[in-house]
PTS transporter subunit EIIC (Enterococcus lacertideformus), 330 residues
Amino acid sequence: MQKFLNWLEKVLTPMATTIGENKYLIAIRDGFLLSTPLLIVGSLFLVLTNFPIPNWNEFMASYLGKDWAVMFNKPATASFDIMTILAVAGIGYSLAKQFKVDAMQAAIISLVSFFIVTPFSTLFTQDGSTEVYEVSSLPLRWMGSSGLFLGMVVALLATRMFVALIRRGWTIKMPDGVPPTVVKSFEALIPSFVILTFFMIANWLADLTTYGNLQEILFKFLQTPLLSLGNTLGAMIIAYLFLHFFWFFGINGSSVVGAAFNEMGIPAAAAMSVENPAVEKYREIIPIIKMPKKGGVGLNQSYKNMVICVMALAKGKNLDYLREEEALIF
């Protein structure tokens, strides 16, 4: 049995290390951290708007007016509706920083590339009319959870292209004495032209299809099926089984499994909060934003049970330190 455990540890440890140190997964994780504080604050206002207390709306309206909910919904709408913009900039910045190139330029290029593949129009129908108009606008639909998948792809691809072009020397060299900010701007000129041209052509090709843009194509054929698959009870049971399996061999299962599943919970949480603010209309099964670091309720309770057993049965002084839960965790 011990040989089998040693063999599993030998096989799993390198795999877990590779996944945990993957630059692209780290970039996605760190990129979302940029928007996390805003999403939390927006969620707090969302809770206050839908507080589960009888006569809550009447109570708030008596002090703040009948339109108080519109005011409180503003922070939630503003934070969730632009989460893709924040994520794109954060992912580009984090990935470029890992490759040791100009992170700020990479973030800006990623953001502009995302806007290139995003339609700047909205279909609009006036009340009492059946005629559909197309008006120039920046649809908030694609700035929120619906555009998140394409945003991640664009940020990773644009930044990786930027890194490759910089390393190949596709830059404009400036003479000595030029301010560093000017040097960095001109160094990014040729890579920016190549990257933006690439996404312009991609957007043009998507415009030739019946869907009209890349956002619609990826949302219908990739993001929706993937989120439907990952946002199920069966998928999460499998995820937590693997999480505990890795922890059994001393590998941080939350980091390994969470790297893949955490990103599935963010669009679900955003969709639930924005599209279905009322609790009774909740439709997403697993709107997690972060997988618990202790492996969920089961593992957390196992710690507590072990502490109780040690306190009740252990007599050796060398086991005293195990009576503290933090010693078991770390």
Observations:
- Residues 99-226 form one domain.
- The first helix runs from residue 2 to 20.
- Residues 21 and 256 are 9 Å apart (CA to CA).
